[in-house]
Amino acid sequence: MKRLVTIALALTLALCASTVFAGALEEIQKRGKLRVGMEPGYMPFELVNQKGEIIGFDVDMAKRMAAAMEVELELVSTAWDGIIPALLTDKFDIIMSGMTLTQQRNMSINFAEPYIVIGQTLLVAKQLEGTITSYKDLNDAKYKIGSKLGTTGEQAAKRMIPNATYISYETEQEGVLELVNGKIDAFVYDLPYNAIAIGQRGDDKMYHVDTPFTYEPLAWAVRKGDHDFLNWLNHFLFQVKNDGTYDKIYHKWFVDGSWQKELQ
């Protein structure tokens, strides 16, 4: 009898779990809308143009994703330090915001397969050119370095350049501006952003040490346990990477550069 009760309880729990995690895909279809959370300040993944529209690599991928689901797309602008809590409290269905897959984050959310791999690089004050050629050269108390609050750039700076004086910034733009204005010696951040920043700002105030010194896979994040949604996302990624869609979007945002005219 005890065994039958245990089996019945297990079946009930399994049924409840399947009901809860029938989850995002079913809700998206019922609602007719895919809600995507992102912080639009990370070029070229997501940013705001002159018209106040959110554009970028992740945005174009989200548009393609919504089209594949045959639903509308809603972009939910969210501060970076609150983006995981917002996902967990159902403010949106998925994070598509250049998020690095880390073991710490994976404790509270699930990730699909990585859609791109990047790494941390350095923007360095121009007067240090020839002196600073690697992140290791900055590991001295006489140098001030910065990155963005709550990012893998901040983690890498603290972990790999521990002897330098570290300053945290709310936004990437603030950190780069502080470098340009001579307040810090180097800014630690993701390769794609730094490459665009040096192109926009020019090389009269800073230079780019563009060899990544970390390995960082970026991936889309969903609530834990939603295996159906993860399965769909992984198959979607496989499809777009093999039918030319991914390459077309990648070229637009990482190679062409004409999108920068929308910011002027």
Automatic annotation (TrEMBL):
Cell location: Cell envelope
The keyword S-adenosyl-L-methionine is annotated on this UniProt entry: no
Keyword vocabulary terms for this entry: Signal
Lineage: superkingdom: Bacteria
Domain Ionotropic glutamate receptor C-terminal: 33-256
Main location, first listed in the record: other
Presence of keyword Signal: yes
Cleaved signal peptide residues: 1-22
Gene3D superfamilies in the record: Periplasmic binding protein-like II
Boundaries of every Solute-binding protein family 3/N-terminal domain copy: 33-257
Record family assignment: Belongs to the bacterial solute-binding protein 3 family.
The protein, known as: ABC transporter
